[in-house]
Amino acid sequence: MAIMYKENKFSIHTTHCDFKSYLRPCAALDFFQDMASSHAELIGVGYDNIMSKGYFWVVLYEQMEVVSRLPLVHEDIIVKTWPKARYKLEFEREYEMCDLDGNVLVKGVSNWVLLDAKTRMISKATDVEFDGEYFDKANYLEKQKRKLNLNLDNYDVEYKHKVSLSDLDCNMHMNNAKYADIIFNMQKPEGYKLWKKLEIAFIKEARLNEEITVRHQIIDGNDCYKGYINNDPCFEAILYLED
User: Fold this and answer.
1) Tens digits of per-residue pLDDT, 105-123?
2) For the packed helices 176-185 and 25-42, what is the interaxial angle rounded to 10 degrees?
3) Which of 65, 67, 210, 227 could disulfide-link 197, Cβ–Cβ 3.0 to 4.6 Å?
4) Model confidence band, residue 243 (pLDDT cutoffs 50, 70, 90)
5) Residue 230: count of CB within 10 angstroms of its CB
6) What three-state secondary structure class fits 159?
7) Distance separating alpha carbons of residues 94 and 110, to the nearest angstrom
8) Among 220, 130, 106, 227, which Cα is nearest to 176's?
């Protein structure tokens, strides 16, 4: 059986970058999710295969952090990914973003589950199996989170985002990477700092025309965010910035 590992070469374009020409968190998540999707097809658990069994993939939690530096506009990078051994309900996947010399620039990990397409509830999906042998590497040894359990009772900023057509993915809810751009848009150019780590947990689906109210609070020196739809939490995130 083949080793379950995939890598692809990408180019960083202006649309991927901030106003200082560095890779935005949203774009990094998008690269990682693109690789997860294409690799899932290769190992027999892609979108069509999973839907034929009555499920679809959703991500509960993602973490990514800068290891050495952020990629810059017009730079070529290599993005790598591999799944980890499944838990009872959750499936974890790791990522690396490297320069062409093999130096790791950014690394990450995500925690996925399968939802029943009819009930939209988490399923054990015992009829889903990966086709291949696990890659012998792990940057993250501990089981990943589902929630961050943030308490933002003393929030200082509130921002509203209405889910638009361009936000949706094939599951007809807001694409996970889009949440990172909401966070990005809550920053100000004055005193702007580059990101060094992002943790984001997805609690509830956001659908077309729904309004997400996002609150911000600094906790332990880090920017914390929590989004709500009709007062129900839909996501939470911690953004760690350079000193």
Assistant:
1) 999 999 999 999 899 899 9
2) 170
3) 65
4) confident
5) 10
6) strand
7) 6
8) 227
HEC states along 186-216? CCCCCCCCCEEEEEEEECCCCCCCCEEEEEE
Query: Quick one: the chain helix, strand, coil %, rounded to 5?
Result: 15, 40, 40
Cβ–Cβ under 8 Å, residues 44 and 174: no
Q: For residue 133, count other CB atoms closer than 10 A to its CB.
A: 11
Q: How many residues does the chain have?
A: 243
Band of residue 1 on the pLDDT scale cut at 50, 70, 90: confident
43: its two tokens:
């190992």
pTM of the model: 0.94
Which position has the token pair 């992002």? 198
Contact (Cβ atoms closer than 8 angstroms) between residue 128 and residue 50: yes
Q: What is the pLDDT of residue 163?
A: 98
Cβ burial, residue 124 (10 Å; 0-12/13-18/19+): exposed
Dihedral, CA of residue 136, residue 141, residue 146 and residue 149, to nearest 10? -160
Q: Which two tokens stand for residue 62?
A: 């993602």
- Buried-exposed string 75-84: b where 16+ CB fall within 10 A, e elsewhere: bebbbbbbbb
